[in-house]
Amino acid sequence: MDWGKLFSKKRIMFLLVFFALVLIGKNINFSAVVGANSQFFTLFQLFGPIAGGFLGPLFGGISVLLAQAGDYLIIGKEWTWINLIRLLPMLFAVWYFGSKKRYVTALVPALCMILFVIHPIGQEAWLYSLYWLIPILGAVLPQKIPGRLWFRSFGATFTAHAIGSVVWLYTVPMEASAWLGLIPVVAFERFVFGMGIACSYVVFNTVMLYLIEKFDWKISTKILFLDRRYSLFYFLNPKPTPD
C-alpha cells in the first residue's frame, strides 16, 4: 500500500480543515441533552456527517474521530469505556452519509431497533424505536429519487440517534415513560439536525467549487468529493450534470 498517495498533502490538508471545524463546532452548544446534567448537543451535530460526503466514509470518519479525541484532550474528559462508546454515533452518521453501500448502512439502525426492543425498558417504549425506520428507508430507496439529499441527511442524524439511544438505554437507568416523553423532543431536534446537515452540505459544496474555480485549484476527485448539483450556483443556473 502506498501510504504517500493514501495520505497525500492535499488530503491531509482537508482532514485538518474538518478537524478544525469539528473542534469548533463541538464547543458551541445547541441544546441540552434531556436527562443528562451538563451535557449538550452542539453545532457539531448540524454538520458533522457531511465529512463522509466530502472526504469519503473512511477519511471523513478519521477527521471526525481525531477531532473528537482532540476535544477530549482539550477539555480533559475522562477516557472511560462509556465515553469512548459515545464517540460511535457521529462516526456511523459520517459513514451513513458518505457510504455508497446503501443496504449495509440500513443494517445499523435495524440492529439498533432490535437491541432496543429486546431490553426490558425498551419493550415498554418500543414506539420510540420507530424513528429508526427513517435511515432504513433512506438507505433502501432508489438513488435517483427527488430529495435524495434530505434522505441522506435525516438518515445520518437518525443513525447517530439510534446508536446513541441504544448506548444510553443500556448504560443509564431511565423509565419507559421518560423514553416515550422524549418522542416529540426528538422530532424537533432531529428535524433541526437534518436540516442543518443538508444546508451545510450545500454551503460547503458552493464555497469549495467557487474557490476551486476562482483560484484554479487542481484537486483530485479521489481526494475531495464535490457535487455540483448541490451548489447554489447550480440552483441558480442549472446545467445537465452526470450522475
Shape: globular
- List how many beta strands DSSP finds: 2
Strand content is: under 5%
Percentage of helical residues?
A: 55-70%
What value does the average pLDDT take?
83
How many domains would you count in the coordinates?
A: 1
- Uncertain parts: none
The end-to-end distance, rounded to whole angstroms, is: 30 Å
The assigned structural class equals: mainly alpha
* Number of DSSP helical runs: 13
Element order, helices and strands?
Answer: HHEEHHHHHHHHHHH
Report the biggest beta sheet as strand number plus sense, adding barrel if it closes. Answer: 2 strands, antiparallel
Please state the CA-atom Rg, rounded to the nearest Å.
18 Å
User: Looking across the biggest beta sheet, what order are the strands in?
Assistant: 1-2
Description of the structure:
There is one protein chain. 65% of the residues lie in helices and 3% in strands. It has 243 residues and is mainly alpha-helical. It has one domain. The chain has a two-stranded antiparallel ribbon. Helix 2 packs across helix 3 (50-75) and helix 9 runs antiparallel to helix 10. 35% of the residues are buried. The mean pLDDT is 83.
